Amino acid sequence: MRHMFLGSLAAAALAATTANAATPMDLSIIDRAVADFTGATIGQPGGAKLPVDRRLRLASCNAPLDLQWFGRDQRSVQVACPTAGWRIYVAVDAGAGGGHGASPQYGQTLVKRGENVSILVRGSGFTLTRQGSAVEDGAQGEWIKVRATGQRTETLRAMVIRPGQVGIDLP
Question: Most Cβ neighbours (<10 Å): which of 5, 20, 33, 132?
Fold first, then answer.
């Protein structure tokens, strides 16, 4: 009787695991995460070129997605799920800036005070990203104060890279 109970318990656990693994990832979550990461929506300069291919069947991710720039020219975003073990790459429109591939004009404000921004910290061989908000306005190439989400007292100085994105390069 005890073996039958343990066998039933094991079968129920396996069925729950299989059902969870069979539940595919909602790909619109990835689209939103990439838009938040890049600071631009799909089809906009600096954003994903296209939505994630809806034919993909990825296992549902039970942890926060890990997003990083991929490639020397940052033309792709690597999206990974550490718990499910998958990784995909989303092509990004390299025409970041003033719109439709045009370069922003000198002194044009790209980040406004209070705006949500992606804060990139880049070092030799890695890029970390954190969401935050701008404490002051800034044009491309200017250093502005930003505050990471969850941090209410400490500000950082970061360079404006493009609309909605600032960065700090480590030596």
Answer: 132
**Residue pair 19/10 in contact by the 8 Å Cβ criterion:** no
Distance CA 159, CA 157 (A): 7
Collapsed DSSP state (helix, strand, coil) of residue 29: helix
Q: What kind of fold does domain 115-169 have according to CATH?
A: SH3 type barrels. (2.30.30)
Pair 131, 64: CB distance under 8 Å: no
Closest CA to 66 of 52, 44, 50, 82: 82
Note the pLDDT tens digit of each residue in 15-47: 444 444 568 899 999 999 998 888 888 988 888
Query: Is the pTM for the entire model greater than 0.70?
Result: no
